[in-house]
Every structure is written in C-alpha cells, then in structure tokens.
Amino acid sequence: MPNDGRIPPDRLRSARWFAPDDLRSFGHRSRLMQLGYAEEEFRGRPIIGILNTWSEINSCHGHFRERARDVKRGVQMAGGLPLEMPALSVDESFTKPTSMLYRNMLAMETEEMIRSHPFDGVVLMGGCDKTTPGLVMGAITAGVPFVYLPAGPMLRGNFAGRTLGSGSDAWKYWDERRAGNVTDAEWLGLQGGIARSHGTCMTMGTASTMTAIVDAMGLSLTGSSPIPAVDAEHQRMGAACGRRIVDMVWEALTPDRIVTAASVRNAAIVAMATGCSTNAVVHLIAMARRAGVELTLDDLDALGRDTPLIANVRPSGKDYLMEDFHFAGGLRALMAQIAARLDTSCLTVTGRTLGEELEGAQVHNTDDIRPLSNPVYAEGSLAVLRGNLAPNGAIIKPAACDPRFWVHEGPALVFDSYPAMKAAIDDEDLDVTPDTVLVLRNAGPQGGPGMPEWGMLPIPKALIKQGHRDMLRISDARMSGTSYGACVLHVAPESFVGGPLALLKTGDIVRMDLPNRRLDMVVDEAELEARRAAWKPPEPRFQRGWGWMFSRHVGQADTGCDFDFLTRAHGSAAGEPDI
Ligand code: FES
Ligand code: MG
Predict the structure, then answer these.
(1) Where would I find the H helices in 179-296?
(2) Which residue range or ranges hold the Dihydroxy-acid/6-phosphogluconate dehydratase N-terminal domain (predicted)?
(3) Which of 39, 76, 346, 504 suits 427 as a labelling partner, its CA being 20 to 30 A distant?
(4) The model's pTM
(5) 443 and 350: one domain?
(6) How far, in Å, from the CA of 207 to the mean position of ligand 2?
(7) Which of 63-72, 113-122, 445-454 has the lowest mean pLDDT?
C-alpha cells in the first residue's frame, strides 16, 4: 500500500465504515461482498466515489458511461476501489424553465451524497453548464479530496462545408431564417450539423468557461478542460483522474488547500482572458463563497479592466472553436501567456503548483491564442454597470456587442414577461427604432424563476428586415454563454423583488455609459418615489415543492444565487455522520 509519508490506512475516512470489529461494520463489509468485492479489494484501500452526471437525455454527457470505466481503470491501477454513483444531470438543452433552477439542487445532492457515504475521495464528472458549479460547490463544502473531470467540448459543427459553432450559429441562422434567407432544407441541414458528437458546446460558452475556471482554480488535471470529449486523449485523461484521486487521498489533499483567495483570483483572470460567458460571474462568486472567499462584482470589474482577452474563440473571438483552441495549446498555453498575472504558487489537484504545471506549455497558433501584445480585445470579457437601474450591479460583455452601443441613450420598450415579449416581437408594426432599448423584467432568480437565459432578447422583426442585427437590451435574466450582442444582464436587485427595474415605464429614457460603467433611467427621483409607493409585489410563483423552497432561499445574482442556508455565513457544515 503506497503510504510512505502519507496517511496510514486506518486514518482513511472509509475505515470508519469498514474497519471496526462491530455489528455495523460487519453489515457494511457484507454489503460490499454482496456487490462482489472480496475483502482484499476494499480493506485499507481508498474508496473512490465517482459522481456521474450521465443521463440519456443529457447529450453533452453521452460519453460519460464509458468514461466512468476509464476512471475506474485508473482508480484500480492506483490501488483504490471505485464506486460509481449517479448525480442529478442538469442538462442545459431540455431542462425547463431553466437548468439554473436546479444548480443548487445538484450542489445539495453532491454535498450530502459525499458526506453520507464512505468515500475517501471523489471524481466529479460534469461539464454541461450548471453541472460544473453545482458539483464543485457541493464538493467544496463536503471537504473530501476531489478531482473535477470535465466532459470536454463536442466536435466542431459543420453544414455544407461551413463550420458551425454551438448556440452562436443557431441564433445567427435563426435571424437569417426570420429574414427569409434560409430554406427549409438548409434549416434541416443546420439542425443535423450543429451538434455532431457527444460533449459540451464547443464555443466559449458557459460550459467551456466553467470548466476552464475550475481547471484554473486547480481542481482539474491542469489543462484538461478543452480536451475534446470524443478524443482518445479524453479517455486517457479520465484514467489519469482515477489514478490521481487515489494519491490525493493518501496525501490528504483536501479542497481547502486548493480553493483559496489566490486560486479564485487566478480563475477570474483566466475567465477574463478566455472571453468567458457572463454566467461565469454568478457561478464563480457562488463557488468562491463556498470556500469562504468573498469575491465581489467590483473585484471582477477591476480584473476585467486589466486583463486582455487573448483567446480568439467564438463568440467573443471571431475565428476558432474549442477543438482549435485545444490544438493551439489549450488552457495551459493560455495560462502560460498570462502567467505573470497569476499566482503560480497555488496548489493544484496534481499535487504540484500551477507554475510547475505550466512549465513547457507552448502556443501552436498565435492567432488562436494571442500574445499579450496582440489581444482580441484589450480589456477583459466582462464589465459591471451600476446606476439607478441597477444599484447592486448588472453585467455586460463589451467584446460581444457593437461598439456603437457603448454609450447609448434611447427610449425603453418594457415587457413584463417573456411570453408578452415573444408575442409582440415579430409584429412588424411594433413601435421600435434602432435606438429603442428593449427591456424584459420579472426574469431574475425569483421572477424567472431561476434566472433563465432569456437576456439575449430577439431583435424585433421590423428591425431585422431593415438589416439591424444588434440593439441595446436590458433584463434581470442571464444569457447563454454562446450569445452575443448589446445585452445588459443580471440587473440586481431583480424587478420581482422590487428592484428599480420594476419602476421603469415604456418611453422612459435609458442611458448606458459603458466606459464609465453607468446604467440609468432618466427619471427624476420624485417620480421614482411615487412609482415605488404604487408598486405591488407580484404573486409568489410557487405554492409547494422545490420552487417554493428555491424562492424562499435563493440569493440575488450579485452574490451568486446560492441558498442562504448553504452559504458559509449560515454556519459551519455538518461534520462527519454518526455511523
Ligand atoms: Fe450542454 Fe451547451 S447544452 S454544454
Ligand atoms: Mg449554455
């Protein structure tokens, strides 16, 4: 047993279940034997839980059944006993009204399943948007050693010889179809070609952003996040995760040694340099807080002003997709480019520092992973706006919006619900001009509910037909990481709980000043006061069940939308279970 200088086998967490000569432990051992394992296979060996978010309806994780076998191979090779366990598969495509409603459910499940089972270490298998923060939030709180195994991006999309990017090209060609420029046959071809293999969206959407963040934080094998899902390298990486988690158990390499203020900052800088999804803000704040690290919107804005965007990956970049990014050197090469800005002394799951992990990393395509002297965009990916419309902040992705909107003033056109907006938007007589500011409210954490990805409001058909493809849009919703445009998101506090967005009326002038980070409605204070006094809270969305609990406990976007009773501020996590 490889325990030289490491914890002795009787200090394994699982020894509490399996070692004592008492009736309970007899029961635990007999049940492992019922599963077909001999004593030699589990006595004194690390028991490794594999939390697998595979599901038949999660197309992004379609390869996870086989991948779990690779992980097991690695665990066994290193002398551990792997036990796979299903975890809630919050998929992005099918879960309504939004997968975000269930991120915290996965976080709770992860925390509780780790705590209540005899796992010495855990491999978390996720990748599709919310699965990454959900698994990681729960596992940070549970506190046992873990490795995050990222699903990896799917292959590039293709139709008729044209490369297609997840999400981004769906929006783009949908606008063209609405303009009458795409035939039925072409539309069917696009439908079949845009997602060609298992794996997560292959633009720098939320999935690739979140796996990059967790990788940069030190929680994945360094640089593993962009390995394509169906590449043999991904199988080898799975086995390596299995081998490594066994050693992490012997080394007692717990997440509190990895997730620190410095590693969270590294993750935020890397997110900015990759052209991250706006969703990164909510999840990064939530994960950091689980580790006791206070990360604020202002911290992120400051890092955003200071960090050049150097990954030329769509949608913020123009030309490349995740597969190209990987072969251009991937996340290790990107981090090596900005190493001077990172704290390279941070420890990673490999047991080595980030700096050691970046040694020898090379860029193979300097157009894809740009040098600092030639960034895609001189500032980072995200900016935080404040003003009388968003006193607690709102988010915009400057690189993804037409620069003519950076300083903009126009009349608001306000919709109170998504269905109302959807019903009106294709009306060719809708009263809009290119200066109009489209507003959707009641789409935040409580209003949506779950803050759906509705924030890239469709351009009204009347403007599409005139050739317009961007306009200023504001909501308390999120938007997909693959979206683009002049979309102000995450307005906090949300309108559903009486945030000032609730007071805005159609025709009011709205002003955005991105260089000065302002977002205001030009309405005088006395008038706002009168509107505030007349405002009535909407009916609660839920009478029972998960939604009822969600509505009572979810926080606002600026603090990460975690449940109040799951944050550290609520008290310390439960200790080890009684056995
Ligand atoms: Fe799963 Fe995009 S839908 S990552
Ligand atoms: Mg997405």
Answers:
(1) 184-193, 206-216, 232-251, 261-274, 279-290
(2) 45-356
(3) 504
(4) 0.96
(5) no
(6) 6
(7) 445-454
The ligand whose atoms approach the alpha carbon of 94 most closely is 1
Residue that is written with structure tokens 């796992």 in the block: 119
pLDDT per residue as tens digits for the range 212-265: 999 999 999 999 999 999 999 999 999 999 999 999 999 999 999 999 999 999
Q: Identify the band that residue 8 occupies on the pLDDT scale cut at 50, 70 and 90.
A: very high
Report residue 3's pLDDT band, with 50, 70 and 90 as the boundaries.
very low
35, 67: one domain: no
Alpha-carbon span 225 to 223, nearest angstrom:
6
The total domain count for the chain is: 3
**Domain range for residue 225?**
46-154+197-358
Helix (H, G, I), strand (E, B) or coil at 21: coil
| 572: its two tokens | 């310390």
For residues 272-284, average pLDDT: 94
Q: Strand 383-387 to strand 390-396: parallel, antiparallel, or no bridges (unpaired)?
A: antiparallel
In Å, how far are 284, 403, 449, 512 from 517, measured between CA atoms? 21, 14, 27, 8
- 206 CA distance to ligand 2 centroid (A)? 5
Q: What is the pLDDT of residue 570?
A: 87
Tokens of 449: 């509910």
- Tell me if 201 CB under 6 Å of ligand 1: yes
Ligand 2 ion: nearby residues, β-carbon < 5 Å = 92, 129, 205-206, 480-481
| Whether pLDDT at 455 is above 50 | yes
Q: Are residues 62 and 37 in the same domain?
A: no
Taking a C-beta distance cutoff of 8 angstroms, is the pair 208, 330 a contact? Answer: no
Ligand 1 atom having least distance to the Cα of 207: 4
Distance 60 CA to ligand 2 centre (A): 11
Confidence of residue 140 (pLDDT cuts 50, 70, 90): very high
Same domain, 254 and 277: yes
307 lies in the same domain as 407? no
If asked whether residues 209 and 79 sit together in one domain, one would say yes
Check residue 574 and give its pLDDT: 76
58 in contact with ligand 1, CB cutoff 6 A: no
459 with 526, same domain: the answer is: yes
Is residue 444 situated within a structural domain? yes
Same domain as 457, residue 354:
no
